[in-house]
Design a protein that fits this description.
Length: 345
């Protein structure tokens, strides 16, 4: 028996062509498409303004797999972590991070990760597969629902900083953002979306060629190749020089905001010499901001968080040298929902 095709992997035009073959008027395509994306139908039976006969035909011809919430954890600080289940039984996590002014969804792009960053819990998990664009879309839909239920507000921002490397799932990530920002989807501004990468230079340039409208964050975490190779093996094939070139290319093509992400590790990358090297890289790229991130310990890694005094000295050095810098305090640590902690726990 042939496996049914996922109807959300068809364009509106393809749905229209199928309907025409079935003797249905083409305007039905708009109705069906609206149910699939704007109204977020979870089954063909939800499509109340479509005849029962057509719903039965659709159900016979197509599947409508959807992400479901498998488990939810609530942090003392208001952060909500969800473990989602895919149609084929895989698990992946997403996080709602509420603040006074923002409701941010942190979404995943892969089940596991093929990169092996030494400080990240997801990096110790094998990559099972990429998430499809409709699955990424579902993450946002479900987290948005949580934001409305818990805080009475819709999502204001989305960051691709969950499990996986977004630029190694390039087509699905871009298609999901297209649907999230489309008036036929969630209608969110692409300017409120940030894609974070561990640094795939070729694909950063591709983002520039595709003239994307979202923001880009580079997970730098070390400001020289020797240290970066040690904690992020991807640097061996995408070194800092290649990334600087790629980021400049991206900015020339798009003019979009670029942020550096930098986790401080005790006695590894937290010295004033490290701060000096970071300043030099910042000067070579039209970056808007350096986010200094608190390290969140994980069982598998030997790293520790530096003392507050060391963090303050590091921040002061950057500020004195006219680096736009911000300290990002971790949220959801008590439920393993903070940066680098996602591991389906």
């Amino acid at each position: 028996m042939n496996e049914k095709r996922n109807i959300r992997h068809l364009s509106k035009e393809e749905i229209g062509a199928w309907l025409a073959q079935e003797g249905e008027p083409r305007f039905r395509a708009g109705q069906v498409y609206e149910w699939l994306w704007l109204k977020q139908a979870r089954s063909f039976d939800d499509m109340s303004n479509v005849s029962k006969a057509l719903r039965a035909k659709l159900s016979e011809a197509f599947s409508l797999p959807a992400l479901t919430v498998d488990a939810t954890q609530f942090s003392e600080d208001g952060t909500i972590k969800s473990r989602f289940k895919t149609y084929d039984g895989h698990l992946v996590e997403g996080v709602l991070i509420p603040t006074e002014n923002r409701q941010t969804a942190c979404v995943s792009s892969q089940i596991g990760c093929s990169l092996t960053c030494k400080f990240c819990a997801t990096g110790y998990m094998p990559r099972k597969r990429n998430l499809n664009y409709d699955e990424i879309y579902d993450e946002v839909v479900l987290i948005n629902r949580q934001a409305e239920e818990a805080n009475g507000k819709k999502l204001s921002n989305i960051v691709f900083m969950g499990m996986g490397e977004p630029l190694l799932n390039y087509k699905n990530v871009l298609k999901s953002i297209e649907m999230i920002s489309s008036p036929e989807g969630l209608g969110m501004s692409a300017r409120r979306i940030t894609v974070s990468t561990a640094g795939v230079a070729k694909m950063i340039k591709q983002l520039g060629d595709d003239e994307v409208r979202f923001k880009l964050a580079l997970s730098l975490h070390a400001a020289n190749d020797k240290k970066r190779n040690e904690i992020m093996p991807i640097n061996e094939t995408n070194n800092i020089e290649a990334l600087v070139e790629a980021l400049n290319y991206f900015y020339q093509k798009t003019g979009n905001e670029i942020t550096f992400e930098y986790i401080l590790f005790k006695d590894f990358n937290d010295s004033l010499k490290d701060a000096e090297e970071l300043t030099k890289i910042y000067r070579r790229v039209p970056a808007d901001l350096v986010n200094i991130i608190e390290y969140n310990p994980i069982d598998m890694a030997r790293f520790r968080k530096p003392d507050e005094e060391v963090t303050e000295q590091f921040m002061n050095y950057l500020e004195k040298n006219r680096v736009n810098v911000r300290l990002r305090r971790s949220r959801g640590k008590d439920i393993d929902a903070a940066c680098g902690q996602l591991a389906n726990k």
